[in-house]
Design a protein that fits this description.
Order of helices and strands: HHHHEHHHHHHHEHEHHHHHEHEEHHH
Largest sheet: 4 strands, mixed
Distance between the termini: 53 Å
Strand content: 5-15%
């Protein structure tokens, strides 16, 4: 008897029913993604994409990540929203399915993406962008669900999506737009893999654990794939601040310390886990993107401005905060590193006062409320130049709408 592959086990798991509460949770993630897309409407990436021949709605898979405010799953360290929602809305509009069907499919897409991403090890993360490597699997699973394809077709789609996956971190070291290219490529590869499976194009079943599969190529000690009792979308965090998630626990701790002291005046020590320093140690950022990946800049923002806003990472503030950034020292803390990635933590010290944050705002242990998620989306839409009326419509369509085609049409107007 042939041993059941990991993708075959995952495919069975994805057939579980999506309950009403999880469907409602998915609506919040849809709104969060719409806010991220709207907020990036006036970005340089959006301007360049407007000159291309890409369908306006398809550009949303790029724009959802531009502001670094897209949702994130902690332990797999990936961002599902920008990868999953665009192909879901696109396929749902094409197939003419209901909103419930679209939401259920998105939940399954999140599940596949996070389930596979959670098996990657530290060696994988050192070289590969998990949003890119796991993303195509999620997009494929979501689009297969939209079209109600057969189990063997889901396996074909997962196999072919996985066979083209990638996403090298080299783009972190250069001022480029590759991070957004990764999300768009993952979304489109997954969509195309599902489309081809619908036509009968077959794919490998052992794409993960096979002798020349994804694990053999990118991991040293892949983790076991687990199947929790509730859908993983419940474990995906919302991001309140427009910076790399690795900077968020330090931001939260600094905000609490500022409230305790009245102001952060003097030298500031940030102790955190090693990946936060690896990804966000940048004393002198030159671009908006680099500022979002600078712990020194994030803490300088809190010291000078308080609660961070998107404007705090723009060029004017990058120049203004150079002296304040120089007062910030980074250090790895072994006990905080030991709790990572299950918990993203930081300890901030100023004037002999210390605040430690074990989990950050937006995580399951410290969730953002529905009102906070809505307020975040509205703020992003305003940042992107949408009117209150347009924002009201987007909130209503995401949280109460019953037609994915209406969202597709709205995106077309935003981005066309």
């Amino acid at each position: 008897m042939t041993q059941e592959s990991l993708t075959e086990k995952l495919a069975k798991h994805l057939t579980l029913r999506v309950d009403v509460a999880t469907r409602a949770r998915a609506r919040l993630h849809l709104l969060d993604w719409l806010g991220c897309v709207a907020g990036a409407r006036e970005s340089k990436v959006a301007a360049l994409l407007a000159k291309s021949h890409i369908c306006p709605v398809e550009t949303s898979s790029w724009l959802g990540n531009v502001l670094e405010m897209d949702d994130i799953h902690r332990t797999s360290i990936l961002h599902p929203g920008p990868v999953i929602w665009q192909p879901v809305i696109d396929a749902a509009e094409d197939a003419g399915v209901s909103m419930d069907k679209a939401l259920d499919s998105a939940v399954r897409g999140y599940e596949a993406m996070v389930a596979i991403g959670s098996t990657f090890d530290a060696h994988h993360y050192a070289h590969y962008h998990p949003t890119a490597t796991a993303g195509a699997f999620g997009a494929a699973a979501a689009v297969v669900s939209i079209h109600s394809l057969k189990p063997n077709q889901l396996l074909d789609a997962l196999g072919n999506a996985g066979s083209t996956t990638g996403g090298l971190w080299q783009m972190r070291h250069e001022a480029v737009m590759t991070k957004q290219f990764h999300t768009a490529t993952a979304a489109q590869n997954g969509y195309f893999a599902a489309f081809m499976a619908r036509s009968g194009i077959t794919g490998p079943r052992m794409i993960l654990e096979g002798p020349q599969g994804l694990y053999a190529a990118t991991c040293r000690s892949p983790k076991p794939m687990e199947y929790p009792k509730r859908w993983r979308i419940w474990d995906v965090s919302f991001k309140p601040w427009g910076a790399c998630r690795h900077a968020h626990p330090a931001i939260d701790a600094a905000l609490e310390l500022q409230a305790l002291l009245g102001k952060l005046d003097g030298e500031i020590l940030v102790e955190t886990y090693s990946d936060a320093i690896t990804f966000c140690d940048n004393l002198n950022p030159k671009t908006v993107h680099q500022a979002k990946f600078s712990l020194q800049h994030a803490i300088a923002v809190v010291a000078v401005s308080g609660v961070p806003t998107l404007a705090d990472f723009e060029p004017a503030m990058i120049n203004k905060l150079a002296k304040q950034r120089a007062k910030v020292t980074l250090r790895e803390c072994k006990d905080i590193s030991a709790r990572y990635p299950e918990h993203y933590g930081a300890r901030v010290t100023c004037n002999k006062q210390v605040v430690e944050m074990i989990d950050t705002l937006g995580d399951p242990e410290r969730p953002m409320s529905e009102v906070q998620v809505i307020d975040k989306a509205r703020a992003l839409m305003a940042w992107g130049g949408l009117s209150k009326k347009q924002a009201d419509k987007a909130v209503k369509l995401a949280l109460e709408g019953d037609d994915p085609a209406a969202i597709y049409k709205m995106l077309g107007k935003w981005l066309g």
